[in-house]
Amino acid sequence: SITSTLVTLLSLSAPGGVSLVVPQPNINATVAQNILLSVEYSCRGVATIEWKHVSSWGTTKIVEWKSGNYVNISTVYKDRVTTFENGSIQLLNVGMRDAGYYFVTVTEEHGTNTYGTIIVNVYEIIYEDLHFVAVLFAFLAAVSAILVCFMWLCNKSLHLFQKKMTHKLTASTTEEIELETIEC
């Protein structure tokens, strides 16, 4: 299948027995969303995992840890990163500056290592568009209310006009009957 072929292509093995799988190499996120940079590694010994972020603003080391021993998170990411035993990390509350390339390096205690890359695109939700839709909706509601009032006024005017015409017809018919009676 295509998925297993993709995972096989993204699975990198080093001679020392370190392998790394990156199941989702592209991630699209919106501002303030939490994202999981998912990887899965395996090795014979104890591994050291390191994540770096590379963007137009430069390269930043996010976190480094040795499985079962220590976790060293950079101060920039201190309250925003969660690490997992399989080598994955979760970034909380992403912003536009979090877009870019994320490189993970898994190094075995004997010095062999392997690399993986994840591309993250971060998009802003454009509130001006939502504002425009709200204003347009309010405008259309106001116009429809004015049209309903105008139709009600036209209907009332028509009823008054018909009532007046009926009254005039009745009055002129009565006059004709009286005139005819007097002529006799």
UniProtKB/TrEMBL annotation:
SUPFAM superfamilies: Immunoglobulin. SMART domains: IG. Its main location: membrane. InterPro entries: CD2/SLAM_rcpt, Ig-like_dom_sf, Ig-like_fold, Ig_sub, Ig_V-set. Keywords: Glycoprotein, Membrane, Signal, Transmembrane, Transmembrane helix. The keyword Signal applies. Residues 24-123 form the Immunoglobulin domain. The chain crosses the membrane at residues 130-154. It is found in: Membrane. One of its GO terms (cellular component) is plasma membrane. This is V-set and transmembrane domain-containing protein 5. It comes from Nestor notabilis (Kea).
